[in-house]
Amino acid sequence: MPVNHAVTIPSANNLPDPSGTPIDPDQPNPTSDDPWQCSYACTITGHTDTVQLLWDGQFFSLTDSEANDPNFGSVAFTYDPPLT
């Protein structure tokens, strides 16, 4: 049975403001071709795992390993502060 996850992403100026590691170290900003890999602690009570996400500057997606894991489930996003 898939295990669902939840993460809280930082925001600023009513937009996501994630921190991440560029896949290409010389890359100043994330792009769809070269996204940043971001790690967030799962916020579901009792979970101690970390969710790996890719940020392309506009959208988040799962890494290939998580997207292809039939036990991974889904990820619920919240933002801090909340987006309006």
What's the layout of helices and strands?
Elements: E1 5-12, E2 15-16, E3 21-22, E4 36-41, E5 50-55, E6 60-62, H1 64-67, E7 75-80
Parallel strand pairs: 1-7
Antiparallel strand pairs: 1-2, 3-4, 4-5, 5-6
How does this structure look, described?
This protein is mainly beta and 84 residues long. It has one domain. The protein contains one helix and seven strands; from the N terminus they run ββββββαβ. The strands form two sheets. Strands 3-4-5-6 form a four-stranded antiparallel β-sheet. A three-stranded mixed β-sheet has the order 2-1-7, with no helix packed on it. A hairpin with a 4-residue loop joins β5 and β6. The longest helix is centred in the last third of the chain and has 4 residues. The N and C termini lie far apart (34 Å). The model has no long low-confidence stretch (mean pLDDT 89).
Structural class: mainly beta
Assembly state (oligomeric): single chain
Helix coverage percent? under 10%
Query: DSSP helix count?
Result: 1
Order of helices and strands: EEEEEEHE
Strands side by side in the biggest sheet: 3-4-5-6
Please tell me what the overall shape is: globular
The count of domains is 1
Low-confidence stretches: none
Rg over alpha carbons: 13 Å
- The separation of the N and C termini measures 34 Å
* Estimated share of beta-strand residues: 35-45%
Count of extended strands:
7
Mean pLDDT: 89
Largest sheet, in brief, is:
4 strands, antiparallel
